[in-house]
Amino acid sequence: MQFFQYIFLKRNWATDKGPFSKTLSTLATSKEPLWLLIFPEGTVVSDVTRITSKKYADKVGLVDHEHVLLPRSTGLHFCAGSLHKSVDYVYDLTIGIEGVRRGQFPEEIYTLRKIYFEGQYPRNIHLHIRKYAISEMPEDEDKFTEWLRQRWIEKDALMEEFYTKGRFTGYESPRTVPMKLNSVFELTQIWYFIVPLVPIMWYFSNYLLNHSSIDNIKDGREIFFCE
């Protein structure tokens, strides 16, 4: 997460605003290409978050969605305002995962165990992408909030379509992009950051073990290792 420059938050705007503003200011002035990924819902859909979304909808007088959670506009509005001079577009992605039926949750269907040890994973992932010029998005916070809510109403309709028809329709140029390895050596990339840590962890483990054993012998105590 550090290597990809994740922005760590405490989910409290009074606390997060300062560090968030500082990070966005740095990104806005950076000469490097920028992709900022944000989830306005703040979490994934589950039985618990569905209840939370419903309570929030009742509190503010809104109709809750069936397939997506109600979005929170503060973070995205702040990002758009901070980066409007350095970012041209906002891309709106709606994701449909094959094998997940209406009322089911992807993280429960495709667990890490099923993916890595049982070979069960989605054969296709559907992306519905819309592009908005950041200069045309509302600057007023209340208008922006309403604009975002309308997008989420459309997202809920898109997910209804996906669960009914098994795909997103209504776009002009659907594309199928095969996902495959260019080389088997690409699999080794996941170990790049782990391999250098192995000798370091080995050294410190032996160091702690040896010194702990010496100290315990001096104190007349024993260490038992159970397998």
Short description:
With about 230 residues, the protein is mostly helical.
Radius of gyration, CA atoms, in whole angstroms: 24 Å
- Biggest sheet strand order reads 1-2
Low-confidence stretches: 216-227
Strand content: 5-15%
Shape: globular
Mean pLDDT level: 85
Helix content: 40-55%
H/E series, N to C?
HHHEHHEHH
Distance between the termini: 34 Å
Alpha-beta classification: mainly alpha
Q: Biggest β-sheet: count, sense, barrel? A: 2 strands, antiparallel
The total count of helices amounts to 7
Number of strands: 2
Fold and architecture overview:
The chain is globular, with a radius of gyration of 24 Å. It is mainly alpha-helical. The protein is 43% helix and 8% strand. A two-stranded antiparallel ribbon has the order 1-2.
Key structural traits:
single chain; 227 residues; mainly alpha; two-stranded antiparallel ribbon; 7 helices; 2 strands; globular; disordered C terminus
SSE map:
Blueprint: H1 13-29, H2 47-60, H3 74-83, E1 89-97, H4 106-109, H5 112-117, E2 125-133, H6 141-165, H7 197-218
Antiparallel strand pairs: 1-2
Helix pairs in contact: 1-3
